[in-house]
Design a protein that fits this description.
alpha+beta, Arc Repressor Mutant, subunit A, Glutaredoxin, 2 domains, 4-stranded mixed β-sheet, binds FE2/S2 (inorganic) cluster
Length: 189
Amino acid sequence: MARFTTENLEKASEIISLYPEPRSALIPLCHLAQAQDGWLTPEAIGQIADLIGLSPAEVKGTASFYDMFHTEQVGEYLVGVCTNISCMLGGAYELLEHCEDRLGIRCGQTTKDGKFTLEEMECMAGCDGPPCVTVNYRYFLGLDNSKFDQLVDDLESGRLDEEVPKHGTVFRNARQGGLRANKGEGQTK
Ligand code: FES
């Protein structure tokens, strides 16, 4: 899927209405598109640009600044292994090597079935439980090789569906309502 579904297009209009300037909705719209497709497709970037009066280059330029937005396709489960100092001392490089073997891919690659993408990460503030692994930004601390294998099995079987939503859903709770932009008197633009 590349462009917003009808339902998400309605949500997009709703989001835009929350701001005095349509362009202020850029980041929430990127979240919406990524939650829908798992990554920011060129079509979604173009549609967001149209909706808020920016160029696709401006949308992509902003989104690509943030690590958690993906402008290239990634797998359903984005597995990140931190290799910064605390995790390195806790065996992160050894675990990373095992992750590559278990998933049959190198760092930065996606499995052929589109299920897993493996990334080496900078510190993710899980330093007290090294090595720190995240899957779709949910933390799994202190994993060894066999616990990682179990984690992969659980993800593949759907046993962790509640805990680890499909990729693209960065946040658990979407904003429901709240303040709206002042479209009445006193607004300068
Ligand atoms: S050093 Fe790995 S999470 Fe901080």
